[in-house]
Design a protein that fits this description.
This protein is α+β, with helices and mostly antiparallel strands and 134 residues long. 22% of the residues lie in helices and 31% in strands. The protein has helices at residues 19-25, 54-66, 90-94, 120-124, and strands spanning 3-10, 30-37, 44-51, 70-73, 77-80, 100-102, 108-110, 130-133. The mean pLDDT is 90.
Amino acid sequence: MPRKRFDLRFPPRQAAKPVIYHLVKDYDLTPNILRAQIEPGQQGRMLLELTGRKEAFADGLAFLEREGLTVSEAAADICLDDEKCVVCGLCTAVCKPQALYLDDDFALKFDKDKCVYCEACVIACPRRAITLRF
């Protein structure tokens, strides 16, 4: 089954609505909340991974947009500037899901499927060699 990641933005009035419940119950999508910051009365944001039938994606995303959420595909990749990077490993130390790691040859590697786009690596990099490409 296809799996995709989406960046959801909630307007303040929508933060308390059970949208995840409806994705499961009404659209047969399996959600995996990778990161979320949602508080009543404030704009919220969620990184959501959905798994399900291809047809269900379009219907489920249309539902979210009808509910007033802004839906976009999640960041495409971590970009590494090889000229700036000195492979110090600081980014790997702060990467909790271990999406960034050093291989046996001490080369910096990125596993897109593990990344939750927390941007901790971007902040930790002293040379500003890491950026997110949206």
